Amino acid sequence: QVQLVESGGGLVQAGGSLRLSCAASGRTISGYSMGWFRQAPGKEREFVASDTRSGSDFADSVKGRFTISRDSAENTVFLQMNSLLPEDTAVYYCAAGSIRTTMARFYDYWGQGTQVTVSS
Questions:
Q1: Could you read off the pLDDT of 34-67 as tens digits, one per residue?
Q2: pLDDT band per the 50, 70, 90 thresholds, residue 82
Q3: Which of 11, 37, 55, 65 has the most CB atoms at less than 10 Å from its CB?
């Protein structure tokens, strides 16, 4: 079992930056693919970014603005979000899985989410 806890969300103006953290416990994340997803009100959960042994993937909507990284010593994954837009407003979720994928249903463990609100 892996427990995931996100933090770092908040309210930011358009053009600003936030760094989300996802702290894992129970198992080391070194053997997992780690992903970030988001869900805006009235919309389906969508893929944002993932980090795996074979590389990283990003949604087209965040390429060039968001980066993903992990700190194995801290067992934590980060999502650095720059040049934020109002359409980035959503609850952001961290997830852990065993394969490289952008599809939420293949992730096994999820955090509770952290709210990101970008004002225009």
A1: 999 999 999 999 999 999 999 999 999 999 999 9
A2: very high
A3: 37
Q: Which of 102, 112, 94, 98 is nearest to 47 (CA)?
A: 102
**16 burial type by CB count under 10 A (0-12 exposed, 13-18 middle, 19+ buried):** middle
Integer Rg of the chain from CA = 13
Residue in the block written with tokens 């892996």: 2
Q: Are 77 and 22 in contact (CB under 8 A)?
A: yes
Residue 14 gets the label, from left (phi > 0), alpha (psi -120 to 50) or beta, of: beta
Tokens, residue 67:
């980066």
Apex 32 CA angle, 31 and 35, nearest 5: 155
* Mean residue pLDDT across the chain: 97
d(CA 25, CA 94): 13
Find out whether 78 and 19 touch, Cβ atoms under 8 Å.
Answer: yes
